[in-house]
Amino acid sequence: MKKRVNPYIITAFIILLAAVISIFVSLNNFTSADKISDKIVAKVNGEPICYNTVKNIIEKEYFNLVLNQIIDDTLVTQEAKKLNIEITDLEHKKMNNSDKDIQNKEIMGLVHKILVTRIDDSKLEKYFNEELAGQRNIEGKYIWIFNIDHKLGTDLIIEFKRNGSIEKAINKLSISERLIVKKIIKPDDKEIFPMLSDIAEGEVGMIMKGTEHIMVFVDKVIYSDSLEFPRDKEIIMNEYLSENFGKEMLELLASLRSETDITYYEVITNNY
């Protein structure tokens, strides 16, 4: 199995860029009545470091990096608009973080949806044949993960047992916005997979992640040779992107750039 590119690393990188932008803006808003370039912002063994030294290094080292990230974000939003792709109200409700975190998650969400439209069946079938088909010893569980507290989790279990349908239980409790992800958990996930051992296919259960209670519904117990293409295309697509998201995103951005007229202008900075 190929090594995964953790999407959280990509998100962390984008958050770092956002922090750099914040610092850059703060420095440009940092004014005084006297000559700002001479303002001392730190001393090292008595040797002063001036504002302008910091500002110039930030401009030199990070300006192009931040600019290109903004260009990439713009390309993604333009492509999503062209394809009539958007983040739904339900997906917005799941983004329970700061405005910058939400913006980053929106971009990643749009990228994911765009990739689904661009990854053709031949690539998915090749991945399925090489990575998933005919490997009986590789077991996974396709689960739904809910972000709900212990009481609501107990209510979900009771309601599910009462009517035998996870969809009906979700609708009855009005918790569709609490379903945060559907994914395959494999044995190499040493934290989560062992906790699923007592939850059979078609059952709801509670597991612990750190100090958090997490409710899961095991939609399907998967042996690789029990998957079929194209019948299980959605599951295979999710698994493919979980392993190849970073590579596919870079290829997408390169493709969008090659199709787009991007004009760079010389930037004249102010030296105070």
Radius of gyration: 24 Å
> Could you tell me how far the N terminus lies from the C terminus, measured between alpha carbons in angstroms?
55 Å
Q: What summary fits the major beta sheet?
A: 4 strands, antiparallel
Q: Number of folding domains?
A: 2
Strand content: 15-25%
Helical amount = 40-55%
Mean pLDDT: 79
Number of helices: 8
Total strand segments: 6
- Give the class from helix and strand content and strand pairing: alpha+beta
**Which stretches are low in confidence, meaning pLDDT under 50 for 5 or more residues running?**
1-9
Which strand order do you get reading across the main beta sheet?
4-3-6-5
- Shape assignment: extended
Strand and helix order: HEEHHHHEHHEEEH
3D structure, described in words:
There is one protein chain. This protein is an alpha+beta fold and 272 residues long. The protein has two domains: 7-119 and 241-258, no CATH class; 137-226, Chitinase A, domain 3 (Roll). The chain has eight helices and six strands; from the N terminus they run αββααααβααβββα. It has helices spanning 7-29, 51-82, 89-93, 99-118, 121-132, 150-163, 166-173, 233-258, and strands at residues 40-44, 47-50, 139-146, 179-185, 204-209, 212-223. It has a four-stranded antiparallel sheet with strand order 4-3-6-5, with helices on one face. A hairpin with a 2-residue loop joins strand 1 and strand 2 (47-50). Helix 1 packs across helix 2 (51-82). The termini are far apart. Residues 1-9 have low confidence and may be disordered.
